[in-house]
């Protein structure tokens, strides 16, 4: 198994984050400095350590669903001591980390897990995992411009677009949108709508792949049911 994949399976973050650990020089294999992210390791024989602490994949991966409130950063820790979603999560022996992005001002469904391989696949654009959002803007959004959201626009040299867009029922006065994304770019919805001349007042995610938030209260968590975990893994081509 590649070293970066092994570290991710140990719950140390995405493969990219694990590659940074290796680049920082704190990963060893059999007490020797790691050669690089693609170094092959045999979990049954090799001793892999991070900062001199041996790491192993958890025997049972943990999958937690959080209804994220506004005002919390989606990160494991913050150097400025701002509030992070980790303060809302019950303590577990496993290392948990968030799957994908949900910016500080956004709300709703956030997955956290100790399963690095599944998390990596869910977050990677090549798997096209759909994220479902309800978005509110300060002024009515014309139905004729929905296609503009799907065609996208270049913002700061980056193409931003949604996979699907529609207006909520007429009673919402055209100020509410239902959007589906398959990418997780930084503040993508806000940046795209602002580039089109609209002020976003709320971003709420209610679905991620086959998982739905349901009636989970704000700030609360629950563990995914076995069937939900199975569907989640099947979505990215993994089996238990």
Provide keyphrases for this structure.
3 domains, 240 residues, nine-stranded mixed sheet, 20% helix, Structural Genomics Hypothetical 15.5 Kd Protein In mrcA-pckA Intergenic Region, Chain A, four-stranded antiparallel sheet, alpha+beta, Alpha-Beta Plaits, single chain
- Into which percent range does the helicity of residues fall? 10-25%
The figure for the number of domains is: 3
Q: What would you call the structural class?
A: alpha+beta
Note the main sheet.
Answer: 9 strands, mixed
The percentage of residues in β strands lies in 25-35%
Could you please say which CATH topology of the largest domain applies here? Alpha-Beta Plaits
Low-confidence regions: none
Q: Write down the secondary-structure element order.
A: HHEEEEEEEHEHEEEEHEEEH
Tell me the span between the first and last alpha carbons. Answer: 17 Å
CATH superfamily of the largest domain: Pseudouridine synthase I, catalytic domain, N-terminal subdomain
Number of strands: 15
| Helical segment count | 6
Shape verdict: elongated
CATH level-two architecture of the largest domain: 2-Layer Sandwich
Radius of gyration: 20 Å
**Average pLDDT figure:** 91
CATH C-level label of the largest domain: Alpha Beta
Short description:
This protein has 240 residues and is α+β, with helices and mostly antiparallel strands. It has six helices and 15 strands. It has three domains: 3-54, Structural Genomics Hypothetical 15.5 Kd Protein In mrcA-pckA Intergenic Region, Chain A; 63-126 and 210-235, Pseudouridine synthase I, catalytic domain, N-terminal subdomain (Alpha-Beta Plaits, 2-Layer Sandwich); 130-208, Alpha-Beta Plaits.
